[in-house]
Structure of ATPase AAA:
Amino acid sequence: MEIAAVQPLAERIIENVQRVIVGKRDIIELVLVALLAEGHILLEDVPGTGKTTLARTLARSLNVDFQRLQFTPDLLPSDVTGLYIYDQRTGDFVFRRGPVFTNILLADEINRATPRTQSALLEAMQERQVSVEGETYPLPRPFLVIATQNPVELEGTFPLPEAQLDRFLLRLSLGYPSAEDEEKMLLRFEREDPLPTLEPVASADDLLAARQAIRHVRVDDDIRRYIINITRATREHEAIELGASPRATLALYQAAQALAAIQGRDYVIPDDVKRLCPVVLTHRVLLSTQVVLRGRTPEAAINDIIESIPVPVEKV
């Protein structure tokens, strides 16, 4: 697939998803960025804003497998990855695959599971494989984890460790719809739910081909250094105790390539990087305790950094 073919593909998917999800084009676009950059998404929002519907609609639009796993305190790692069971007919132990063996996995309320169960996803998210009893099983491609958590209700939850947060390419929030969009939603769902009749507009092969195409999106030296300067600045900022990792630098780079291709360009511009910084970096930095007590947020710190780093300009 040529880079020029990525934008029409993305537009078909976005328009199809918007047949169910009213508005939120910018969020849908960023979800596609994660898919094309082979990343995962952390959706932080209150219940009822359409997180599950978005995941289901995306899977149906791409005609790929979808699994939803409700994370609870009694969920075991084997409930995620699968386990060996004894087959009485053959007299052997056979591996029964867990819900992680899918294309799009919705990990609902991931912070309600214990850290041990949360960690069962680490290998799957990073290496696209699962290891059980010394055996390694590759996961289907494409593979996307959309994890959700309620940022308001914290009772009975286990905060995600930094190692797991770093494996999410983007942290997004759908937010409440505008009054106009909410009225459109009521009219759209007045007679029937449009999701069951939604037809696919792309395939897994289309997505995999697009992934190969975006690797050829050009990133000039100045843009590359701009990305590096931003992530390095998070490690030196006075308000930040733990800065962004080298994985974050790579994530920002690949996400910028994907966003440029979706916008119809074969090159990255500074605005791509600036748009992505808040959703790629804020969940990867840890503010110092004193700064948190003063009411400072990671978003504010990242915005300070973006404003302080000189933006590359085109050479005449």
Summary: The radius of gyration is 20 Å.
